[in-house]
Amino acid sequence: MTSATGYARRSRGRPKVFDRDAALDKAMALFWQHGYEATSMAHLVEATGAKAPTLYAEFTNKEGLFRAALDHYIARFIETNEALLFATDKSLEQALGDYFGAIARFFTSKETPNGCFIISTSSALAASSEDIAHTIKARHARQAQTITRFLQQRQQQGEIPLQCNIHHLSDYLCCVLQGMSVSAREGINLTSLMRVVETTLRILPELIKN
């Protein structure tokens, strides 16, 4: 082996290891910003820096990559915010205030596209993407289930009157969150979203009475 050949082999080094989490971060941001339909595998290859065969081997196809990005979003952001709801040392108002406030800051963060990944991608889906729509709907239902579970716990603890319909209250709070996401997507700032949070908390005593 000549010295030139040996140098060439050494300079190649080891093959680059595929970083799944980094690729999902970039794919998530792309889907989040442009939607499922408008994002192609070519876009995803360019954004992640991975080769197409690598992405296909890891995720099968664009739909598989989207599902993985969706679960990545839930694990990275939603589960972190949900933990604020179930802090046992906080009152009903404090827990909801911390949760809604964290979501307001998240929806307007400069580090990610504005609004909610789930709501933003679902609103741009074509009618032909039934499987993806079903997946998004199932994941989105988790938020309502989490809020309902939180409210049921607080009702059992006596903070919410027994006559209050927990499911109706949960529906209302979920609609507020969805409205916050849409408003953030359209450019509303954090200060304005926090006013929405403050208003929601201010009328909460009347909401739980009815």
List the helices and strands and how they pair.
Layout: H1 3-12, H2 20-34, H3 41-48, H4 52-59, H5 62-85, H6 92-107, H7 117-123, H8 130-156, H9 166-185, H10 190-209
What is the gist of this entry?
This protein has 210 residues and is mainly alpha-helical. The chain has helices at residues 3-12, 20-34, 41-48, 52-59, 62-85, 92-107, 117-123, 130-156, 166-185, 190-209. This is TetR/AcrR family transcriptional regulator.
Q: In terms of per-residue confidence, which ranges show pLDDT below 50 for 5 or more consecutive residues?
A: 1-11
Given the C-alpha coordinates, what overall shape results?
Answer: elongated
Strand content: under 5%
| Alpha plus pi helix count | 10
> What's the name of the CATH homologous superfamily?
Tetracycline Repressor, domain 2
Percentage of residues in helical conformation: over 70%
Just name the CATH architecture. Orthogonal Bundle
Number of domains: 1
CATH topology: Tetracycline Repressor, domain 2
Q: Can you count the beta strands?
A: 0
User: How does the helix and strand content classify structurally?
Assistant: mainly alpha
- Give the termini separation: 85 Å
Order of helices and strands: HHHHHHHHHH
Protein name: TetR/AcrR family transcriptional regulator
Keywords: DNA-binding, Transcription, Transcription regulation
Domain HTH tetR-type: 17-77
InterPro entries: Homeodomain-like_sf, HTH_TetR, Tet_transcr_reg_TetR-rel_C_sf, TetR_C
Can you give a write-up of this model?
The chain is 74% helix and 0% strand. With 210 residues, it is mainly α. It has one domain (20-209): Tetracycline Repressor, domain 2. The radius of gyration is 22 Å and the shape is elongated. The model is unreliable at 1-11 (pLDDT under 50).
